[in-house]
Amino acid sequence: MMKENKTPGKSEGQMFPISNRYVEPKVISDRHFKKQTHQEHEALAAAGELNEYRLQRRLKSELERIAPDRLFRWCFRSHRLPLSVMVSGVAGVGKTTLVQKFIFDWATGKHYQKFAFVFFFKFRDLNTITEKRSLESLICQTYPHLQDKLPRVLEDPKKLLFIFDGLDESKTDLKLRRGEAHELCMNPGDVKPVTVIVASLLKQTLLEGCSVLLTSRPSKLISLEAGVFHRVASIVGFLSKERERYFSMFFGDERVSREAFAYVRDSQVLYTLCYNPSYCWITCTALKPCFIARAGRPQPTPKTVTQLFVSYVTHIMANHTQERPEPQRMRDTLISVGWLAEYGIINHILVFDLKYLQDFNVEFSPFLTGFLVENPQTNDSSQVTYSFLHLTIQEFFAALVHYLDYKEDKFRDTMAKARSCKEGDYEIFSRFLAGLSHPATKMPLEKYVGKFSAEVSRKVIGWLSEMTYEELQSPEEPKGKRRLMNVFNLFFESQNSQLVHDVMGKAAHMDFSDLYLMPVDCTVLAYVLSCCEEIQCLTLDSCFIQNEGLERLRPELHKVRELSLLENDLKDPTMKDICKALKHQNCRLEALSLGNNAFTEQCCEELASALVENQTLLSLDLKKNKLRIGGLSYLSRVFESPECKIR
Q: pLDDT, tens digit, for every residue of 184-215?
């Protein structure tokens, strides 16, 4: 059985079988796992579509899907039965839930009956153990009923599985790198620091032959020695079918779930969030009042990530308690929680003990339990820690507090940190900061907690307007281009078209060649293009833009004077969107490069028809496509026409 998070000071949360709500995420075994960057794993914007791309497109030969019940089966890459397995994934992607389902299936006899005992530990619980321990005492503390039987239990290590969940929350490093000197355990009775016990199990100096499963966020893997693990797997979350199934299970009503999913799918910015089960739940919760009419007045649907989280927070405030607190009390509560969240973001703290809450004057209100939840310790229910429901909710409140309780010195310091941060840090926080500056985005929250600081809005808009486009076009490849796309995400969240117009200038040049542009990137890019009067040059060579991405860009392509789409493996269906741009009454296209794609003679009649109507195109590049004689015959008639302007 699983239970929902406990409301502080209230009765236990609702119990339910895990099988009732479990939608299996995709897990991959990846030999290039260690080479992937921190940003690729942790970034919010394109992670979902990137996972889908990696699984379905170019990297199929390097990735293999692996069912959770095969984690300890024969591994063809290491040519052995793995004893040590690492399962990694970003916050909220389902690492703990996958492990719980793994244990549930083992306990109900569905798999891995070779294990007689499965021992489950959380690093957040192990952090509370400051003194040295032995493995025997560790097991007895968590599983006291095994006290008398433990020597017999440990007799056959091959029948034992140890699971350690949340390595990223460990306060002490495992020190698994070669050459790091530390004394490992040899016997279950050896008294050592807890992390040494874990390292000893992994290194097989303790209970040789036992199996060990660790979970962690990807950022922690950099400090580990890859060779210690016989199999490294990554949870990439929900692909399209799993997202759709989750919506169906959440809403229950097939019509409502279909409408909500169709909206999210079309939005793309929201859809890409839903690769992560936690975001999926937040999205569904936020959209519920939008698609289930109350008194015939459903709420407006969110378009940006900030608007989604505003919808989520207002939904919790409206529905999480029967007696709604006074606006000032709500505001004070959010301010206290916000400063706690900001302190955690700055100091990389995800789990807070009671003293943190007291220091920041956080008093629990019923509606607050929708954001901040209790984590009772496995071995001591009197010791409780607290965490935000998801890291992104923590980042949202860290941004929100500056609008509710503006303090010039704190705001200045936070912005200085955000400006000087490494790639990926403060990225989501900055998006929320930009998004909350828009009047329509913050309005639903202002109804509950009063007006936001106008000074913060001015300063955030000023910060965004200081970005000169020439400086954004960094020569670094491809980091500079991804950085530029991240800035475009800030513009998208701000929904301030005049601001974007002023920053981009009258005739922008954009070059994203060799940067994978997922459909969500194309949605954001299309918004930026929509704010520009004219785009002198848009280069999207080797960006892996496909039908969906080009469809999202299509409404703005007629503004571009020079458009290059070389080497994107574009196929015939995408020609419809290109032709619509060519036929647009205000088309400005003068140069169009479509070389090195997969167009065939089937699309040439449609292209020829568009060229007849177009009066601006001077240069057309179609080299290295499969047009054949039939396709060229259509085009040659256009080129021979006296009205044809193509040179």
A: 899 999 999 999 999 999 999 999 999 999 99
Structure tokens at 164: 């350690």
CATH number (domain holding residue 535): 3.80.10.10
Q: Are 192 and 180 in contact (CB under 8 A)?
A: no
Contact 248, 254 (CB under 8 A): yes
- Phi and psi, residue 344, nearest 5°: -65, -40
DSSP 69: G
Helices and strands (H, E) in the chain, number of each type = 27, 17
State the Cα–Cα distance between residues 602 and 317, nearest whole angstrom: 55
Quick one: pLDDT at residue 59?
Answer: 45
Q: What is the mean pLDDT of the chain?
A: 84
Residue 554 has pLDDT above 50, yes or no: yes
CA angle 230, 73, 146 (to 5 degrees): 85
State pLDDT tens for residues 447-488. Answer: 999 999 999 999 999 999 987 666 666 555 556 788 888 899
Question: To 10 degrees, what angle do helices 305-319 and 439-449 make?
Answer: 20
Residue-level pLDDT at 507: 76
Neighbours of 189 (CB within 10 A): 11
User: Does 437 map to a domain?
Assistant: no
Query: What residues contact residue 490 under an 8 Å CB cut-off, 6+ apart?
Result: 430, 431, 434, 464
Tell me, letter by letter, the H, E, C secondary structure of 235-282: EEECCHHHHHHHHHHHHCCHHHHHHHHHHHHHHCHHHHHCCCHHHHHH
d(CA 374, CA 9): 10
Instruction: Confirm if 127 and 165 have CB atoms less than 8 A apart.
Output: no
Averaged pLDDT for residues 56-69: 61
How confident is the model over 402-409, as a mean pLDDT? 96
Domain boundary among 237, 270, 295: 237
The H or E element containing residue 64 is strand 63-65
Residue 325 lies in a domain: no
What is the pLDDT at residue 474? Answer: 56
- For residue 15, pLDDT over 70 is answered with no
| Structural domain boundaries enclosing 60 | 15-237
Rounded to whole angstroms, the Cα distance separating 160 from 78 reads 21
Residues 6+ apart with CB under 8 A from 262: none
Domain count, the chain: 2
**Is there a contact between 542 and 514 (Cβ–Cβ < 8 Å)?**
yes
Task: Among 220, 237, 254, identify where a domain stops.
Answer: 237
Question: Are the beta carbons of 533 and 506 closer than 8 angstroms?
Answer: yes
Residues 6+ apart with CB under 8 A from 636: none
For residue 242, what pLDDT is reported? Answer: 87
Q: Looking at residue 123, which CATH number applies to its domain?
A: 3.40.50.300
Where does 67-187 have alpha helices with state H?
95-107, 123-126, 135-142, 150-153
pLDDT of residue 11: 43
Within-domain flag for 354: no
Q: What is the dihedral of CA 276, 279, 285, 287, to 10 degrees?
A: -100
- Domain assignment present for 321: no
Q: Which two tokens stand for residue 156?
A: 């056959």
**Nearest CA among 211, 216, 233 for reference residue 66:** 233
Of 170, 137, 162, give the one whose Cα is nearest residue 214.
Answer: 162
